[in-house]
Structure formats: structure tokens, C-alpha cells
Amino acid sequence: MTKKIFYPLFLLLIPLIGTVVSDEVNWSLFDFVIMGFLLILLGVGINFVTTRSKNLKKQILYIGFIVLFIGGAVVQYKLFHSEIESDEKDDTFTGEDDGEKKCGCF
Length: 106
What we know:
By secondary structure, the protein is mainly alpha-helical. The chain contains three helices and two strands; from the N terminus they run αααββ. The protein has helices spanning 13-21, 29-52, 56-88, and strands at 93-95, 101-103. The protein has a two-stranded antiparallel ribbon. Helix 2 (29-52) packs antiparallel against helix 3.
């Protein structure tokens, strides 16, 4: 294996800087580990395709499938992770004595 498969890990610098600078980006260590794994998988897949196939059209097609597969995994992780976070938050409504409902999030 070459060092080229680790180059996509440099993309993790973007959310790392965002996490340090802003409160809007809130990544945990687990998020970085999952994305690091997926980016290494992407690098290995691209390296495999480029070394096995010499036809440029097939390379583009196979790399497109790999990117769609990795993108689908990211979307599934984000949906699953957001469901867990929403279960942990206390977004219940608090009621007054007269039965009026107020949102507790403001």
C-alpha cells in the first residue's frame, strides 16, 4: 500500500478547525474515528481502482460507485446519530396549570 490512501484524511482538518473555532460544529472523537475510517476506505478503493483498471472511463465509473457508497454510509450514520442525540435531549413540553403547552427550548 502507498501513502496516497491516507491523503483523504487531510479533509478531517476542516471539521477539526470548525470544532475548535466555532460552537456550531460539534464533532466528538467518535465522529472523527468514523469519518477517518470512511476516508481511508475511500483512499483504498480509489487506489485499488486506479491500479487494477487502465481504462479511464471504467475508473471514473468505479470511483463514482465508491463515492456513492461512502456517501450513503455517511448519510446513514448521520441519520442514526441524530436520532440518538434527539433521544438524549429533553425536548418535552412543559404544561402550565391551565393546560397550556409551552415549548421548553426557548
